[in-house]
Each structure stands twice: as C-alpha cells, then as structure tokens.
TrEMBL record:
It comes from Methanosarcina barkeri str. Wiesmoor. Residues 534-593 form the Formylmethanofuran dehydrogenase subunit E domain. It comes from the Archaea. This is Formylmethanofuran dehydrogenase subunit E domain-containing protein.
Amino acid sequence: MIKSGIKNLRRISTKSIYLVFLTALVLSLGAVPGMAAEGCHYNSNLMGQVFAAAEADLGVVGPQNTLIITDIGSPAESYVFLDDFYSEFDNRNLLYTKNLLTVENSRNSPLWFAFFNKCDGNCTYVEVSYENESNISYKVTENINFDKLSKTNESRDAWSEKVNNLVFNGHEFAILTIANAWATGNLDYELMQCLELHNHFCPGVSSGYVLANWMEENYPLKDGVSYTVFSCPNWCKEDVFVKRWDVTPGTGGIWVSALTDNETEALGGSPAGIFVVKDKNAGTMKAVVLGFNFDVVNANCGAKDTDPGWVSKYLADLWLMDQKNWDTEGLVSVISVMDIDADTLSEMKLADNNPYVVLGLLNSTESTQSSAAEGRHRNSNLMGQVFAAAEADLGVVGPQNTLIITDIGSPAESYVFLDDFYSEFDNRNLLYTKNLLTVENSRNSPLWFSFFNKCDGNCTYVEVSYENESNISYKVTENINFDKLSKTNESRDAWSEKVNNSVFNGHEFAILTIANAWATGNLDYELMQCLGLHNHFCPGVSSGYALANWMEENYPLKDGVSYTVFSCPNWCKEDVFVKRWDVTPGTGGIWVSALTDNETEALGGSPAGIFVVKDKNAGTMKAVVLGFNFDVVNANCGAKDTDPGWVSKYLADLWLMDQKNWDTEGLISVISVMDIDADTLNEMKLADNNPYVVLGLLNSTETN
C-alpha cells in the first residue's frame, strides 16, 4: 500500500530512496477555486491601485522600459490577488519573459512589488497590507541606477545608508542587482529563472549557473541521463541546480551538507560539490567532483577591497554573466571523476557519512568531451496549434471546466513559447489561479501539456518538438475520471496497463491525481502551489503539507521567526517546506540526509525530521523533532492491500486533503523539543554528523 508505494516508512531502506527528477516553475501559478482565503481581506481594486501608484511616480508602465519584481503568490493567501495582478499586467501589453520576475518568499513576508524603469533608473517599491483591510501600506521611489550609485564615495555612502535604513524593507540588494542586470540586456533568461527561486542575484547563484553549464557541456543531459547533486559545501549555488535540473530535495535529487575549514583545505580549498551522472541507457554512474574558485572572480571583476558589498557582488555578477569568462583558467576545476555503483551512492546519502570520505577523495584528472547546445526552432503558431488540438477532442477550453497542466519553461529553451502560450491562455479568459498548474521538470524533458475537462473526465495530452522544426509530436485523449477508472477490477487493470505503456509518456500518475483532486473543488491552492515544485501529487507531499501546517499552528511564523529544516529521512515532503517557507538549499534553509533502518527504529519507527525554530526577537532557538505515521493514513483512507499504487496513493491524498483528519491520533507525533544554540545548529549541518546524534537522540552504536 502507501508504505511500499512511497517507501517503507517503518523500515526505511536507503536503497529505496524515492528518486524522481521533477521541479517548480516559480511563477507560482496554480489552479483551484479562487475564493478569498479566510482571514484575508480581498479588495478587487488593490492591484489597480498598486500599478497606479507606480505610474504616478514613473510614468507609463510599458513593455519597452519596465521590469516588475514581486513575491505575489508566496506570502500567506496573497494568491487571491493573482488574477487581478495579471489582468493589470496584460492590460498594459507587458510580456512574461520580458517584464516580470516573480520571486519566492516565506509565508510571513509582506506582499511587495518593485517597478523599475530602465530609461532613468527610477524604481518604485510598494508594499500592501491585506490582513484586515486591503491597501497600500508603504511606497517609496528611489533611483537605483548602479553606475550613478557607485560613481563616487559620496553616492556609495548615500545608498549604503539607505540600505542600512531598509528603504526597500530589506530587498535593496535583490532589487538593485536584478534590475540593473536586466537593464544591460545581457541577463540570460534561464539564469533569470533561477533568480525566481533564490530571490536575489549574487555571485553564489552566478557560480551555480556556471557550474551547471559546465556539467551540461561536459556530461550532456541526453535522453536517459540524470544528475544527483551532493552540494557540499553549500553557498547559494544549489538553487540553480534545483531550478535547472529539477533536483529537488523532495525527489532526492539534491543532498546538502557543510564542510569544516580543514576538510575544505584538504580538498584543495575550493570544493563545489559532487555531481553524480547516471546514464540509464549506458548503465553507468560517475561521480564528478568539481571546484569553483572565487579568487579568480575577485581578481578579474574589477571590485576593490574597499568596495561595499553591494558593489563588489554586483561587479562579480556582471563578470560571471559574460560566458566568455567561464573558461578563465582556474575558475572551474575537476577534482576527481570516478565510476561508482548504487551502493556507493546510497552510502553518500547517509546522515553520518561525508560523501567525500565515501569516495576516498581521489584526484583523477579524467577528461570529458563537450558538446554545444543546439538552437531551438520557434514557431509562433505552435501554441495555437496545441490549444486547437485539445479543443478538437475536448470542445471549448473554458474557465468553468478546464485545468491545464504543463512543464513549459522547464525543458531547455522552452521559454521561447511562454508569451505565445499565455496569449492563447488569456484569449480564452482562463484564470491563473483556477485553470493552470505549471510544474517543474528537468532540462532534458519534453515540453508537454495536458488539458483536463472536469465535466466528463476527458484529458488530452500533447507533446511538442521544437529542436529542428516546431510541431506537435504526440497527442492522445483518455478519460481519467478516477471513480470510473477505479470502479471495477477490469477498469483498474485497463488503466494500469495504459500506465505501464506510458500513455502520457510517464506523467500518468501526476496528471490523474492532480486533475481529479482539482475537480473535487477541495484542493487547497497553497497545496497546489507545492505540487508545481514537486511535479506530482502523492502522500509524501501531502504529509509534508500536514507537517508544515502543524508547525505553523504550534510555532507560528510571526515577525522575526524562521525555520531551518533537517529533513532526515527524506520522502517528498521536503518540497512543501521549500515552497511554503522559502527554505531553499541555496539559502541554507534545508539540509537533507538519509537514515539507516536501525536509526529509524531507534527513533520510534517514523521520524519525519528536525525543525529548528529561530525567534530573533525573543533570542531563542528550539529544535522540534516530529514523526509522521503513514500507518494511520493506511488505516483510515479506504485503500486496500490489493489496490494498485495509483489507487491507494490517490485515496491517501484525498484523506490527507481533509484538514479535519490532521488531528487523528498518532498521525503527527512530537519526538522531542529542546532549546539549542548556534554552535549546535552548525554542528548539525556538518557532513560528518548525524543531526539526531548531535541532539543526543541517537548514540553512535545506534547509527551502525
């Protein structure tokens, strides 16, 4: 049943870690009933007021000169304004790929907007309040042209003072660097997509983009090739890998830990991580150990030791934006390349193990062959053809009956179709919060669309090819109404056979579960947002949503409160925490490792992880250790041992969607709560340490 479908949660085997390569288009778009959430005061004119406030200071907000940066969709219940925001956006003929960056943020962050005019460098920053009354709570306009601000000591000091005074409420660096880089016209859109997840533009994320491109050039993401990343040490770069390769913590694609200074020096002073390249067609697995040397950046970018941080970091970003600089000697180095097997990979994931120790710290200089990326062929009519193909089988694609699920924006260079897609979408009066879920995927995945009609359960799945010529390469229509498919043994067997034959090219489970849950009208939009990152709907991600809500209820995200998550063991739930709390690997908010069967049993059989709650206002830090028991789900959701996985998992999802069930005895348990300090937190992050051992909940004999 569910235990064996996700992983055996009573005895978690490291060899059965759930590895699925899936990620989130961070534009935070989804599809559920767009009703105002309880506790949120919805004002349908608020977004118009926000745009008007910007235009009062900047003049016309138009497609030739404007970049809008906003965290809409991330702060709690801010999704109620999404449709109004995009209505204002569309009415000004703004384009999604040219005039907008939607960044992730935590749930207890304010809802804010920055409107930047590249012609004169002026930027209007607006915050809104919507808890009791919906209104603009703060507005300021500043000139953030980097050349002007950095020109003299006086101008630098003046801006530094405004940064210290939080003129943009703490977003000064993010807005200045992103806006100025965009204004150069040289900011790669695929790098810009990574900034959505990371929330700001810094040399750390730029270095990740360089490393990602190095990997793709030397170990191309051909069909059947995937990466697993051990980002050790961590420094912002991780969010590029999550976004670009769909290696999310919840799918087991990325594992994050820290190194001591001595370990860093022993690895040459600048280790960047271990990239495991699995080629399932060739049956090979290689561990590629890379280094990245920031001394090379510092020596070439033009920054001075006396520069304030916002100057030196932006100059480093500009230098790293220029792809000609990526071949600079010593910037990216190969520490080692070696063949490994599945057992070695499993060992590298364990909480007690340092992955470099597992590999023996070899110093091979094995070389690899590079290949240039192929150009993409853009057909401006292709998206119209996709919608027409769906309507040929389903009838009118309209706002009352349709859910579109797509990975557009994730496959390599598929962003070239984004504006055309949204044009077709808008022309049918579809709504972003009611009719769309954009899911993350890896760069070597196909570009696909599913159109689901909830009235009759029919679903048209479309794939397109755009490498040489742009056209529809595959189309099929199936009825995926869950009640019909699961009604009899014959209907179950028939659908299971189609799943085995990959009728939707491997996306059968994702499309069936998301579409049917959406059709119930009870799928919480904020859970739907998490599915965008995780790429499918399973009890693992549902359990994460229940755990996240438990934490927020018992340790509320008040002003000054933040979480750091040690998700150990991992099982899909991690992607909820990343999406909901903005605890990305690159920001050091989440640390992922595995447990042995003995460790799991010693912790009561169902540990879920350690949630460190830091309250900077109170000066406290607590480690909250929780468990989650899937036996309780199995006993209550109505699934049978004989059910196929797609049935039992969906029934578990339905049960966990009902928030009344979250209080069921034994579902969530508190294993321990203790006060800790910063030194303890740092120890928990180290690659050699098991965080439960650091907290005294396990001893060394139990970890063997």
